[in-house]
Every structure is written in structure tokens, then in C-alpha cells.
């Protein structure tokens, strides 16, 4: 059953409502989007700029039919660090651009061969659990952040819950924003906010885009071989996200605008981001959670968030201010959002009536859960793959190899 719509994809809320609704998406994606460049040694302001630009490219390719925000992909963290260490940051940028090319290759294959093979390779019995472990695998981060100030985290999460359940009118559709602001104000009373970074930052400054600094990508096969293959795991994640968004907005997005367009949009966004000095991008589960909570599906709202991200990349004081949001506040928000991602994956299984009384289906789901949540690490020579990627690939292989019977396709209620 789809969520009740407040604003549908093609609808545009009035500006007084659209602005805070867009800011909700900015707050939802900001922490994770900025974390990836911080971990990999790239510029957070550049990444903020390229996430906004990449999202606009994605919406252009998909004709504004997929209300998704594109942020930094966690799947690429380890290979980016390895490539940057071995071949330098400019070499790593080439590897990231190559990942975007892999997306484009999948676009071409699907455009020619259609989606039938996708439905066979990625049925709900695989995609549902993968989406669930995407949320579940992120929960340790939420708990670690929350534990640094449990009272602040609980107050933040409590504001989100109260606004979502008991709010009326406009209050009901901006719970994430209210929770972030309310949690931040409470954190100030607890002495958990350090304003030093805000005082040191200038007001306006150009992001250090590679075309401005002269640090353009430098081609090296080694960096390409390290980073490009990870795109496959990210593509599986995109398929799961697209199905979840489709369920949320009650649209068959796999066919209209089509998975091939989604992958092309993501690939072009990643190529543009890497060329400018940013990191690879992917559709963001955090923002899917915002769609589910607010029931505002407007593509214009998400596009507004992209424009805000671009503008904010020029405002150093804002970037510094957002980075002063204490971890317990982020923990309180992500407890809700990451749990929502997992719950939506579960809903996908339930609505597709996947029969878990069948041993074949049960084994596939169980293996994906264990490997994904457990964070399995698989090594092939110098390459290492961990967590969601290997779990998804092994789940796909099990689905293809294990014999299928009529009982496996029978609805769970039978």
C-alpha cells in the first residue's frame, strides 16, 4: 500500500512551504555526504557543491520523475583511500570517473536488452533484504553517535516522533527539520556545541573545484581497477532504492522513466562530481526516509534541496555551523531515518507477498541478512569488498542457482 500523498511528484508546494521542506532534505543528506570526503581526504565544500549539481543532472536525465537526492556513496570509501594513497588524489579522481562509466555501460545494456533479465537477477526476495541491510548496517553509526549524549539524542528523536504522529498541518510534514533544530537548541543547553569553527570561517568563498585549482584527474589504470568495480555494488543499491521509492510514491519507476535512465543519471552525476574534485554519488536512503515520513514527493522540493546545497557550498560559515551539530543530535535523527530504510525494505517483502515459509526464499533472505549486517569482508588479491556489496552479490547468485518451485512463488498468505 502506497503512502498517502500530500504533494505528488509533479506538484510544487508554495515557496513558504517548499523552502523548509527542501531544507529537510539538506539536513538529511548533509552529515553522510560530508563524512565521505572527510574520511577520504577530499574537500567537503566541493562534495556539497557536486552533490547538488549531480542531483540536478540526475533529475534532468530522468525528466523529474524520480524524487531522489544524490549524495556521497559509502561503498567507495575504502577503494578511494587505497587509490589516493597509491596513485594520488588526481589518480583517484580518474577511478571515480570510471565508476560513472560503468553506470553508463549498464544503461546501454538495459536500453538494448530491456528489464526482463533485471527482474530475474534482482527479484524482491533479493532486493528487499538488501534494502533492509542498507538501513540495518548503518544503525551502529546512529547508536554510536547517540551514545555520546543519550539525553540529547532521545530529545531529538522524540521531537521527530511527536511532530510526525501528533503534528497538524505543516508541522506534520517537517519533523526532521524540527527535530534537528530542536535537538541543536537542547544540545546548546547541555554544552555540547562548539562555536569556534563558525567564528573562524569566512562568510563567502568559492569551493576548491578542480577546474579552478588545476588539480584535474590524471588517468591511471591502477586507480580505475581499484574503484570502478565497486560501481556494481552501488548499482544494486540503486535498484533497491528505486523500488522503494516506487513503492513509496506508488509509481512503477522501473519502467517510467526506467531503470536505465536512473543509472545513466547516476553515472553522469558521478562523472561530473569526480571531474570537479568530488566523490562518487548514489541515491540516498536518508532522503527516501524523508519522503516516507513527510509524504511530500515533490521533485521540485528535492531539486530545491540541490540548489540550496550548491549555494551553501559557497557559504563557509554555514558549512561550519552545520558541522557543529553535535553527534547526539545526528544520532537521534538517524535512529529514525536508518530504521525507516530497513522498515521500507521489510514492507517491500510484505507487499510482494514473498513466501518465507519456503526454504529457498528463507535461505536467500537469511544469508543476505547475516553477511550484510555482519559486514563480511571478501578479498581478491589487492581488492577487498565488504558489507552490503558481497551480501547482495551472493544473494543474487543464490537466487540464480537454487532451484525454484511453485511454492516459492506462492503468496505468503497461502
TrEMBL record:
Molecular-function GO term, any one: nucleobase transmembrane transporter activity
Annotated Pfam families: Xan_ur_permease
Keywords: Membrane, Transmembrane, Transmembrane helix, Transport
Membrane topology of the entry: Multi-pass membrane protein
GO CC annotation terms, alphabetical: plasma membrane
Bilayer-crossing regions: 21-39, 68-87, 93-118, 125-143, 149-166, 173-198, 218-236, 301-323, 329-350, 362-378, 384-402
Keyword Acyltransferase among record annotations: no
Main location: membrane
InterPro entries: NCS2, Xan_ur_permease
Compartments (UniProt record): Membrane
UniProt similarity note: Belongs to the nucleobase:cation symporter-2 (NCS2) (TC 2.A.40) family.
PANTHER family: XANTHINE-URACIL / VITAMIN C PERMEASE FAMILY MEMBER
Protein name in UniProt: Permease family
Species, as recorded: Acididesulfobacillus acetoxydans
Amino acid at each position: 500500500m502506497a503512502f498517502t500523498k500530500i504533494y505528488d511528484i509533479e506538484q510544487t508546494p508554495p515557496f513558504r512551504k517548499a523552502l523548509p521542506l527542501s531544507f529537510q532534505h539538506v539536513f538529511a543528506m548533509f552529515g553522510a555526504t560530508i563524512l565521505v570526503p572527510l574520511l577520504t581526504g577530499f574537500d567537503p565544500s566541493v562534495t556539497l557543491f557536486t552533490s547538488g549539481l549531480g542531483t540536478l543532472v540526475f533529475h534532468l536525465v530522468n525528466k523529474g520523475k524520480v524524487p531522489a537526492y544524490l549524495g556521497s556513496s559509502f561503498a567507495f570509501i575504502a577503494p578511494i583511500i587505497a587509490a589516493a594513497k597509491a596513485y594520488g588524489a588526481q589518480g583517484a579522481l580518474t577511478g571515480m570517473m570510471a565508476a560513472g562509466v560503468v553506470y553508463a555501460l549498464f544503461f546501454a545494456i538495459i536500453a538494448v536488452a530491456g528489464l526482463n533479465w533485471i527482474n530475474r537477477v534482482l527479484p524482491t526476495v533479493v532486493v528487499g533484504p538488501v534494502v533492509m541491510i542498507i538501513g540495518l548496517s548503518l544503525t551502529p553509526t546512529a547508536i554510536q553517535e547517540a551514545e555520546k549524549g543519550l539525553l540529547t539524542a532521545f530529545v531529538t528523536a522524540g521531537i521527530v516522533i511527536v511532530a510526525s504522529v501528533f503534528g497538524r498541518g505543516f508541522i506534520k510534514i517537517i519533523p526532521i527539520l524540527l527535530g534537528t533544530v530542536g535537538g541543536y537548541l537542547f544540545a546548546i543547553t547541555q554544552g555540547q556545541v562548539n562555536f569556534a569553527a563558525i567564528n573562524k570561517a569566512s562568510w563567502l568563498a568559492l569551493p576548491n573545484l578542480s577546474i579552478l585549482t588545476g588539480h584535474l584527474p590524471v588517468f591511471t589504470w591502477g586507480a580505475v581497477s581499484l574503484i570502478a568495480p565497486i560501481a556494481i555494488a552501488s548499482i544494486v543499491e540503486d535498484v533497491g532504492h528505486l523500488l522503494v521509492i516506487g513503492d513509496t510514491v506508488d509509481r512503477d519507476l522501473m519502467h517510467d522513466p526506467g531503470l536505465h535512465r536512473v543509472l545513466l543519471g547516476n553515472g553522469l552525476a558521478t562523472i561530473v562530481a569526480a571531474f570537479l574534485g568530488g566523490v562518487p554519488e548514489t541515491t540516498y536512503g536518508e532522503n527516501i526516509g524523508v519522503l516516507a515520513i513527510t509524504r511530500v514527493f515533490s521533485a521540485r522540493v528535492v531539486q530545491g534541496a540541490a540548489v540550496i546545497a550548491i549555494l551553501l557550498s559557497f557559504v563557509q560559515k554555514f558549512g561550519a555551523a552545520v558541522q557543529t551539530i553535535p553527534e547526539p543530535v545526528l544520532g537521534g535523527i538517524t535512529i529514525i531515518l536508518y530504521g525507516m530504510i530497513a522498515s521500507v525494505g521489510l514492507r517491500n517483502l510484505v507487499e510482494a507477498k514473498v513466501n518465507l515459509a519456503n526454504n529457498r526464499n528463507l535461505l536467500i533472505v537469511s544469508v543476505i541478512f547475516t553477511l550484510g549486517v555482519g559486514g563480511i569482508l571478501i578479498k581478491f588479491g589487492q581488492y577487498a569488498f565488504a558489507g552490503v556489496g558481497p551480501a547482495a552479490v551472493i544473494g543474487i547468485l543464490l537466487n540464480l542457482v537454487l532451484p525454484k518451485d511453485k511454492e516459492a512463488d506462492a503468496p505468503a498468505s497461502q
